[in-house]
Amino acid sequence: MIGWARHHVQSCAAALRRLARAPLAVGFNVLTVGIALALPLGGYLALENLARLAAGAGAKPQLSVYFARDTGPPDVDRVRAGLEAAAGVRAVRFIGRDEALRKMQQDAGLAEILAALKSNPLPDVLVIDLAAEDPAAAEALATRIQALPEVERVQFDAQWARRLDAALRVGRLALTLLAGLLAIGLVTVSFNAVRLQIVTQRDEIELAKLVGATDAFVRRPFLYQGAAIGVLGGIAAAAIVLGAWLLLERELARLAAAYGTSFRLHGLPPSEWAAILAFSGIIGWSGAYASASKYLHAIRPR
Amino acid sequence: MPIISCSRVTKRYPGGFEALRDVSFGIEPGEMVFLTGHSGAGKTSLLKLLPAIERATAGTVLINGQNVGALRARAVPFLRRTLGLVFQEQRLLYDRSVFENVMLPLLVTGHATRDAARRARAALDKVGLLARERTNPITLSGGEQQRLCVARAVVNRPSILIADEPTASLDAASAVEILEIFGAFNQVGVTVLIATHDQSLVARFASRVLRLDHGRLAA
Ligand SMILES: Nc1ncnc2c1ncn2[C@@H]1O[C@H](COP(=O)(O)OP(=O)(O)O)[C@@H](O)[C@H]1O
Ligand SMILES: [Mg+2]
Fold it and tell me: Which label site among A138, A158, A257, B14 has the fewest CB atoms less than 10 Å from its CB?
């Protein structure tokens, strides 16, 4: 048991020493893995930030009903009562035109403009929170309300957010497929790296088998080598993405400042970084395992 | 009971060539035996059957009562650990030191590192190479390289030592030196089987001789 554990440590050390002995070849392999992984990783981060943006904008489905300006309070109340009773409506909030104007006047920039106007240009508004997340039902309700003579316009507030949400879902799927394809590609990178290593160490492998090495013993350093290429590639990918990140974040902050808002990119929690490294390690390990199974078996001492 | 026994062993290579035909013999524990015969007689072919590098086409090979020909692939490494092998081609690793070459069999069997280093040095000491442990084997003379091979073969303390033409490329003095080292191991109870085509060397030792002639065992 102790001997077994020790061999794992020795194999790992030997694998790393071998990698260090051929820094250029290893560097290329690691870079290949890194760049290939940086693609889906960067895409994932971008999508997550978009998703966060969409959620902040309120992905909750909402309808805003704008009344015609000559609508009197009794008509508004009647429409409101009707809507409160309608199916799929969770809550109805009334924002009167006077209240809306007061709120706008609190904004220094807008107050000046409003002061120049003779009368209140704003309509009465009903804000409807919908219960269901069913866009078709919301659409149907919006059409029905639009048909009312008192209503000037109905705005489906969550529409763009919902569209973004759908787009994000497609994006995520596409990224998952891309990551899957690249993972297969990266398995072959590790497969070939290990195959080359096996060829160059042929004498040593034969000798080890002659002095009683088991197949598992011979295979182990190569598995570590593959896993190391994978993990180092994962680190390279993280470095590439973080580098691009820092550049982008500065520019985005500047852009947001120009619009008087603040915007921050959100990174990944450490657990997800760890998962990414584990994933890339497993990719490298798998390629090495396939390679070792195929080529080590063929090496028989003569 | 013999520690090595072959009965009616035949080895036919894929091309159809019969390198061994109907070979039977036994070697008792603690014996030292020479396997002689002309070049191409089948000495190497016979020795390769013992660590299951090759398998007999017919007949049985027993080591310590274990049927080598019937061993499953998973069991072969454990058989090989009981044997010390000195190969016709030396198979030294020139990308590491003398010491590391001797360490290899111990790493394979997972011996405790400190104990392994002690054992490796003891083996190097027995063949007179302890002072050279840090050098690269490429810097050793032919005789020294062969002694290094012997050290590597005995470091795991095998009960059987098998050597294929261990003196082939050596001058007479080095050859005698090597054989004396084998003799010393035999003195402490190791069973030794040495293949050589050099009759004059065999004559110096009062050991049993098995002579192969075109794949058959001659009397
Ligand atoms: N792998 C092989 N395939 C075919 N023929 C072989 C093989 N190995 C050895 N031989 C043949 O078997 C005969 C015996 O060879 P070998 O056992 O090496 O003899 P020795 O060691 O006594 O010189 C030779 O004729 C050789 O050509
Ligand atoms: Mg031979």
Answer: B14
